[in-house]
């Protein structure tokens, strides 16, 4: 039975770490796309800098939201492995902060989309 618990713990830790890497990749890709979009749109002269930034912000916000969701999943998996009260409290704080960020970012993205920013 102890071998199964160790294997399960190792698997969950590996999955949590892998999901954190995926979240990091999503965030880095989103940031790179943001910079690329702003550079291409502002240098091509098809849009002004403020329009290019607004358009790129919508896309970056979507990547940030996706990255935050993956990070919350990784935190939950990590807490399954480490069930101390301290870890659960830290998870609750982190998940609350990330959820608040997601709510406000989602609201801002909706407002930008309603203003006609793609």
Automatic annotation (TrEMBL):
One Pfam match: DUF1622
Cleavable signal peptide: none
InterPro entries per the UniProt record, alphabetical: DUF1622
Key words, A-Z: Membrane, Transmembrane, Transmembrane helix
Coiled coil: none
Transmembrane segments: 14-40, 60-82, 88-105
PANTHER family listed in its UniProt record: SLL0939 PROTEIN (PTHR38468:SF1)
Protein name per its UniProtKB record: DUF1622 domain-containing protein
Source species: Parvularcula lutaonensis
Organism classification: Bacteria, Pseudomonadati, Pseudomonadota, Alphaproteobacteria, Parvularculales
């Amino acid at each position: 039975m102890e071998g199964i618990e160790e294997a399960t713990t190792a698997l969950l830790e590996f999955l949590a770490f892998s999901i954190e890497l995926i979240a990091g990749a999503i965030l880095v890709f989103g940031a790179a796309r943001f910079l690329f979009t702003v550079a291409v749109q502002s240098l091509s002269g098809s849009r002004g800098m403020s329009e290019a930034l607004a358009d790129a912000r919508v896309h970056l916000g979507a990547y940030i939201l996706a990255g935050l969701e993956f990070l919350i999943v990784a935190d939950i998996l990590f807490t399954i492995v480490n069930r101390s009260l301290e870890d659960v409290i830290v998870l609750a704080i982190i998940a609350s902060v990330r959820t608040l960020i997601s709510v406000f970012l989602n609201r801002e993205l909706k407002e930008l989309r309603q203003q006609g920013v793609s």
